[in-house]
Amino acid sequence: MSRGRLSRRGFLDHMTAAALGGAIGGTKAAEGFFPDAGQPAYTVREEADAIFIETPRLEAAIRKRGYVSGVAAQSFLDKQTGFRDPGFGLDIADWIMEPGSDEAYRDQLAGTDLVYEYNNLFHGRRAKRSIEGPQICTQARELQPVVIQGKDFVAIKQQFTYRVAAPGKKVGSVWTQVLVFPVDRRYFFSMDRIDTVNRSDAMFLRIDMPGHIRHRGGDTFAQIYLSYRGHIPSSEFLHDFPPDEKFDYLRDRDPVPERFIRACQLRDPQTGRVGPWLAGMTLEPSVVYEAWCHQRGYVCMIQEFGGRPIEPGQAFSAAFIVGYFDSIEEMHEVYDRYKGHIGLVVTDQGWQLVR
Questions:
Q1: pLDDT for the residue numbered 36
Q2: DSSP string of 232-280?
Q3: Is residue 30's pLDDT more than 80?
Q4: What residues have CB less than 8 Å from 252, skipping those under 6 apart?
Q5: Is 106 inside any structural domain?
Q6: Residue 125 burial (CB < 10 Å; 0-12/13-18/19+)?
Q7: Please, what sign has the CA dihedral across residues 195, 199, 204, 207?
């Protein structure tokens, strides 16, 4: 997010789990049942501002208004341990972007959020520019998530048509996100996809994956695991530093890793008790264009995927697993089971990862 834009912290400081639970008006509730059991496998409650999902393993909320896309901040509860996500939400969507600078036409971007400043602590030294916007999470303001219910899963599908474009680019590319919550898992599957109306030599989508980490002196997490960098203690994030100073990944510079996993080991800020790992896994490592893990008042876990030539009418996507794990070994085992997928399709009859 560029300096001068509404910050995630400012947008979300008022949003706690309690606030999410206080949504009002138009409540709709539904249940899914295990086959031949008669006991609810999950519940879905739809209210004016959010959709609330509960399975035997998890709770999650998907906001319809305000700060939208992905799973809402502090709503993702691991019932096994009682821990929640510590950031601004999970699998949060931003702009469509490409390499290059907007400085030559920046005066034409006045009144939009497409200006992208670099050579600073927030974005580092690499020149990039926004092709289409606005930033979905803070500026879309309202989405219309669709609930899809199966016998042993519940899914959410949501879309947004970008409505602002840089000079020389068209508006109208479509972002699609699918989230699937199986009833017997401590994690969910997701997909983000762009169907573009523009051409680019290296178009990519920026997302938060798994999500940022709010903390004070490392009180909410003990360490971070990056499959392409190893273990990093929370003490490395006590002072701000730019994205490309350390702990970053760049596909054109670094070897594509066997697995692309980014995770933080949670810690209770009140007691110091160490909890589970909260991980985000990109199931096809080669789709990741750039990713960073830096400190800017919070730990910023930006990830960009795509970054390859594309023509109008084409699409690109990535598939993810986001959730709770007891160990790195468990993450690796789950990752290897689903590795290589880039898409996700779902109907009320079932869901499937696709390559």
A1: 52
A2: EEGGGGSS---TTTSS-EETTTSPPPS-EEEEEEEE-TTT--EEEEEEE
A3: no
A4: none
A5: yes
A6: exposed
A7: negative
Helix, strand or coil, per DSSP, at residue 8: helix
Counting every residue written for the chain, the total comes to 355
Mean pLDDT of the chain: 91
Structural domains of the chain, count:
1
The DSSP result for 80-114, as a single string, is TT--B--SSEESEEEEEEEES--GGGGGGGTTSS-
Contact 288, 316 (CB under 8 A): no
CATH of the domain at 244: 2.70.98
297 located within any domain: yes
For residue 186, being part of any structural domain is answered with yes
Contacts of 22 (CB under 8 A, 6+ apart): none
Ramachandran category for residue 272: left, alpha or beta (phi over 0 → left; psi -120 to 50 → alpha): left
Integer-rounded Cα Rg, in Å, for the chain is 19
- pLDDT digit string (tens) for 57-115? 999 999 999 999 999 999 999 999 999 999 999 999 999 999 999 999 999 999 999 99
Q: What is the pLDDT of residue 39?
A: 61
Q: Per residue in 125-153, pLDDT tens? A: 899 999 999 999 999 999 999 999 999 99
Pairing of strands 187-195, 230-233: unpaired
Which residue bears the tokens 């700060």?
67
Q: Is residue 2 part of a domain?
A: no
Domain containing residue 198: 8-354
Which of residues 289 and 2 earns the better pLDDT score?
289
Give the pLDDT confidence score for residue 41 in this predicted structure. 87
